[in-house]
Write a structure and sequence with these properties.
- The complex is a heterodimer of chains A (351) and B (360).
- Chain A folds into 2 domains: 142 residues, PurM-like, N-terminal domain (60s Ribosomal Protein L30, Chain: A, 2-Layer Sandwich); 168 residues, PurM-like C-terminal domain (Phosphoribosyl-aminoimidazole Synthetase, Chain A, domain 2, Alpha-Beta Complex), CATH 3.90.650.10.
- In chain A, 29% of the residues lie in helices and 23% in strands.
- Chain A has 9 helices and 13 strands.
- Chain A has a 7-stranded mixed sheet with strand order 8-10-7-11-9-12-13. Chain A has a 4-stranded mixed sheet with strand order 1-6-4-5. In chain A, strands 2-3 form a two-stranded antiparallel sheet.
- In chain A, strand 2 and strand 3 form a beta hairpin.
- The longest helix of chain A has 17 residues.
- Chain A starts with 29 loop residues before the first helix and ends in a 12-residue tail after the last strand.
- The model of chain A has no long low-confidence stretch (mean pLDDT 89).
- Chain B contains 15 helices and 11 strands.
- Chain B has a domain of 149 residues: Rossmann fold, CATH 3.40.50.
- In chain B, 38% of the residues lie in helices and 19% in strands.
- In chain B, strands 4-3-5-6-11-10 form a 6-stranded mixed sheet, with helices on both faces. In chain B, strands 2-1-7-8-9 form a 5-stranded parallel sheet.
- Classes of the chains: A alpha+beta (351), B alpha/beta (360).
- At the A-B interface, helix 8 and strand 13 of A face helix 1, helix 2 and helix 15 of B.
Amino acid sequence: MTKKINFNYSCPMPEFDFDTITIGHGSGGFLTNRLLEEVVFKHFSNEYLAQQHDGAVFQVDGKIAYSTDSFVVSPIFFPGGNIGDLAINGTMNDLAMCGAVPKYLSLGLIIEEGLKVTELWDILQSIKQISDFYDVKVVTGDTKVVERGKGDKIFINTSGIGEVLPKANIGIDNIQVGDQVIVSGHVGTHGMTIMSVREGLEFETSLESDTQYIGDIANKLIDDFGSKIRFLRDPTRGGLATVLNEIASNLKLSIEIEEQAVPVLRETSSACELLGLDPIYVANEGIFVAIVAREVSNEVLSVLKKDLKCTNAAIVGSVTVDYPKKVIVKSGIGGKRVVSMLIGEQLPRIC
Amino acid sequence: MKYLEEFRNAEIVKQYLDKIHNTVTKSWSVMEICGGQTHSLVKNGIVDLLPTEITMVHGPGCPVCVTPVALIDSAIKIAESENSILCSFGDMLRVPGSEKSLLKAKAEGADVRIVYSPLDAVRIAQKETDKKVVFFAVGFETTAPANALSVLQAKQLNLYNYFLLTSHVMVPPAMMALLQDEETNIDGFLAAGHVCTVMGTNEYIPIVEKYKVPIVVTGFEPVDLLQGLWMCISQLEKGTALLENQYSRVVSKKGNEQAQGIIERVFKVASRIWRGIGNIPESGLELDDEFREFDANFEFNLNPEGEEPDNKCIAGEILKGLKKPKACPHFGKLCVPENPLGAPMVSSEGACAAYYNYSQ
């Protein structure tokens, strides 16, 4: 399994005279103030947040990337991480896929009354560890509390701004025939981990989510290879197949991948086999897809493989002209099939 | 994954493909019964690797596809009733009923839950004692034992808020109906491996003898399918009609007698409407009178034997193997997985969905 950065940082939770978030914490009055002061502002203290203004004012130079994402995962804690990890890694990764270095984030929390303060603390702790490590600042935010039954413990929205690297030239129009498709790690690990702990479906597995920030290595690729890195995407919902379809449908070209070249953990493929799912449609968090010029593809691969987070990277296919707007998979036995976009959710089979 | 990877070995696949190419001299139509087999054939690109003389006809072994519209309407009616929970395998949710699908009913507020086993539905019934919990028991002989077991478990737990909405069908009567149908033209069968795991192979002997048609019980992986097909083609070329078992690593002659015992205890044989095909006598299972108190039809006063609505779907011709999905004028146009006209486009085992997903 890919090795994730082990954060050894931890911050003791302040003493509270309440252990559960109640509707009063979202009312804008005294309780809200306590919650924000003690849990949020102190935790993420920086000069922008300290202004306690309606928004953050800061200087940015050059071209910027701006992205937003909302997180509603259930359960909120799962092997390998929690909703906080997803919320920060997700938006930071999205910015990095645009060729940017993430700088500033907003953090919106929608909390269902009844959430334990310790759970909120742990979630914020995850966000803080990652933002500190990568020097990204949470500069503005919002907290709302909704009645029990109107949320699912906690929903998080993060938006982020990043500075685009001078050498970045990421765009679907840059993709050319012969370009190679690289995935940076095992496909489907996060999605199958979540399924394994989802209520009503629990199955025993050693799988852990690979949620992580992979933008540093994506940034490095741009620094090293410039415009030879044609396109970057993190294949979250809908998985690898859906992302490749989105790319192909915007091109007059096709993408052909070798099923056997796609890196999938044994645990993931076994669980998929059991549930009748296809790993290439399963959601990911800690990997990205790169479409790169053929002449640098092997070099890109070796740069990736040297990074602890991408040791399982692989070239899985290439951009061709034969099947315009389609994604074709060559099966292990040599047959070919079209891979279409995921329609709705992957529904498990009867038998 | 032991017992899977060996059966996906490209070298062995090639050997069987060569054997088939070297054996075949005439045109043959072979039906694979099970939708799982259809998907494996299309997903692995096997259909395109076969000699042109061989036509694979995709059979009716897709439980979702053959579940009549009236039963789906019944399931929706239950889900929309006050204080009731409809539990179903995920596959059924997108299948269109006469007005809507279970997925749409769920979005409108009906309590529909996807479960992976009928025993999960029993657990829900244990937790939510003030609600009527109904499991949509769809499937062939493969799912029947577990569904029957859930009734026995509910009885043992004195759970009287658990019910089955039964839509069980059986393979051998459907095969006989297809063979008797003058329109169909099937030279040999690949019988469904999973069904035979439960039922054994003996019940196919009378079919082989009466209709003089070779039947090879076959598994689901590429090597299984090609070996089974080669066995079937070899028989056809030799002019024999025997029952053979390719899937012997799993299937025995007698099958799983304990599972059969449970089916027999809980269910009784009944005639059943197959969506697109019509009524086939003694082709289904329904709860035995002894277990009537667990029957959703009685509890909710349902009449699922309604007329099939007239629509543009040619599911019947697809399921009888008379037409290939691409021969349907609506395939990929009016009828797509996100907006299906009929069940074969919905189920992950449906022939239309297989062609749409893997070869559109």
